[in-house]
Amino acid sequence: MVNDQDIIDADRRGHLDEAVSWASAQLLSLSGASIEVRVARHIRLARVLRHRGLGDDFRRSLDAARQGLHLASLPTCPAQWRPIAELAVASAHLALGDEATCRGLVDPLTAPGSRADPAVAAWAWRLQGEAALKRSALFEAVPALLNSVAEEQRTRSAPGADATPALLLLAFSRIGQVLDAQKVLGDTDPTRMWPRRRLVLLLARAEHERRYGHIADALETLDDAEELIDRGSGLDRLRARLHLLRASCFDDWRLGSHAQRERQRAVELKIPDAPPPAQPVTRLGESAPITLTSPQPRQGSVMDLIREFRALPCLGVEHAVILEGALMALQGVPGGERTEALALVEAGSLLASGSSGVRATAERLLRRALARLDYLEGTQLWRASCQAALGRLLSETATEKEEALDLLLAAISGLNRERYSMRHRSHRAEWQRQVESPPHATAIDLAKALGRDEIAAELIIHSRLSGVVSAQTVGEVEAATDTVTTIPLAPVPRLHHINGTVSVLGGPGRCRLL
Asked: How much is the pTM?
């Protein structure tokens, strides 16, 4: 006979199919159970359905939570169950995209003068933070989540307390507070978390690592998360998120076929899209009590526009004007500096391949991007891509070829560093062919045109060097019984020539040619 603790443990371990099945079966055997037990079991079923989130699970979760709230409202039920049931209903509404109803239930529990139990208050603040996070109100999400942490410290048994670090990590990461995000990671010990919560934290960590340019680290984190998913059941919603995060990483590495394959895997899981926010019912002439959509411009609309223009055979002045206007709307958005800079890189790179009439706009956007990337942490990869695009654009001018060569040399160095972070040979080969080769070829031609034969020769040599296999990396591979396809490479060191000159390109270390 399955008991309550079995369901709780199955939920925590990530065996959600079993947890839903057992919790559903429990409701069929409530004969003679006390009203407290009935309320607790309805809330438990609502929770595991919400965690799984497949098919009509969110709607079923709301039905179960409402039934629990109905029972908790009866005079014979102890008073402490009502706010818990209200929060279960609020959580289900939030999962369905209805923030207004969620906040209507949650706000009284966090209002000044509220005497809610600390565990209840912690859950209420966490829901407020999660709701703000969903609509990208990041400056609202952070204090709400920190209030949840404060309430959790007042009690030893705050249900869902281990969910707060992942939400706080995402909020700090998206708002650009890198040190605070790293502190959340440093203060959180994943080994002390149950597998499902650890999985959610790993996905948040991978998003954070990818956002700040640590693509290789993000892919390794996703591999760890996938191991946890494979051990559980009913985790397809999280698996789909994993595939989409991995696709984004591959996009950053310009591995289009790999990214497309990951997106196809996410589509094959047939996870229903999160519903849009429901419009609250208000009296005529009154404003909605809660803003359900962020007034800030979304990067998604700009990136969609860039993708649409990328499919066009040729870009003209009218396209450049539309793009520049869309990018101007991203300026000055608090916490959106990184979003704006990356959109500038994409748009400028796209226009750089357009007609001659849009080249000036392309240069303007790329220079704006570089000016911003100078002050943003973890953007080395995008900085190198921007330098490559601007360098190739300026190489076609008559007066700025020297600057173009300097930009291309800096870009090649940055793109090289990224290649050496890739463990798979196929990833490095595709990166070298699609990303590194174009600026290399342009730089060689430009160096020869400027009479910089020594730079041209060095670029030719450098373009033929794959990297260095160190004894340490070979040992790591042998210990892992890996294959030659995944041997990591170290950068080729700077070459010290017989005549005393030192190569411009190269990684740390020295190699003296005798």
From this structure: 0.85
